[in-house]
Amino acid sequence: MKPSKRLDRIPPYLFAEIDRKIDEAKAKGADIISLGIGDPDTATFPNIVEKMHREIDDASNHNYPPYQGTKDFRQACVNWMKNRFGVELDPDKETVALIGSKEGIAHVFFGYVDPGDYTLVPDPAYPVYANATYLAGGEPYFMPVGPENNYLPDLGKIPGEVARKAKIMFLNYPNNPTGAVANLDYFKEVLEFAKKYDILICHDQAYCEMTYDGYVAPSFLQIEGARDYCIEFFSHSKTYNMTGWRIAWAAGGEKVLTPLKTIKSNIDSGAFKAVQKAGIAALETPQEKITELNEIYRSRRNIMIEGLRELGWDVGSPKATFYLWLPVPKGLNSAELAEIMLERAGIVVPPGNGYGPNGEGFFRIALTVDENKLREVVERMKKAGIHFNMASGAVY
Ligand code: MLT
After folding, report:
1. How many domains does the chain contain in total?
2. pTM, whole model, 2 decimals?
3. Which of 8, 35, 100, 244 is the most exposed place for a label (fewest CB within 10 A)?
């Protein structure tokens, strides 16, 4: 039986492919350290787990949830927005619960993109933005980002004929995979661009709470009038160690959010009500707990950067996310580097080309193992002769 043509342009999902390679290596007896997927290694906060224990026993949570999320979940989301960003939202009209932000991010394309439409997608970026464009029949226009533009798409370089046919611009700051951040002035420029060409800004906020060294990430919705042009996708996954729970939410003006709600109510029936109750407990987590978690990542970041510097990498300290985005040694491409790391050192890293053509020449490290394991990573790389100048024959 022939699958649909829309799958012709969809590669296997980056991390599904990486999981397959991990399984293969483990089957051969390899002792693997995975710095692959951005999946927190510490437990969901106890206040959330305790809430779930209680709610799962309550039979009133066992039937269908409301399509846009329970009222108390949406109210908790808008309370959080008010406390965190000073933004007032209408819980009934300007927010919707998601079954993880990946779900909402993929579905929003079906609410806006027709065959022949463009979407504006950074390159490199989380693979879902381009692949959901293809699934909806659209064409991603890749906006290159790199050290030369501080990882911020250069709006002046987007051709007018592309911008006029574009329906969505997807951004993500703090950024996966690069760890880059953006400020409100940049967001204001993007908003002006979106108004000029009548484009929906979709902003993936999965990492907005994972920040270090005093950096505080802004929200588009802090800008006057932005809600008419912008949907932000907030995720419980990384902030509260809840990747497996599949709970998140989107916020934006009523008009821009409605197509996403229509798509969702025809495709899914919402997140389990007990999970939404646990999601409320998450949003009420004391800030000290989140600061403590960020301190763990900050310390890991510093250890890994020190180790990488010993190995010849000239690497700066990202202000946010638990990712390090690193150039591959000269003479290798990103797939070759990932292969060498796995074969010679038993270390899993995603190759940069998995995040788009412009990710070639880079690889990503997720700081999702403890400090001792990170020290072991550096030792294993040393032993295996993996260093930044390996192609030049230099020895470390
Ligand atoms: C990542 O590691 O880039 C993401 O966590 C993967 C995902 O959400 O699929």
Report:
1. 2
2. 0.96
3. 8
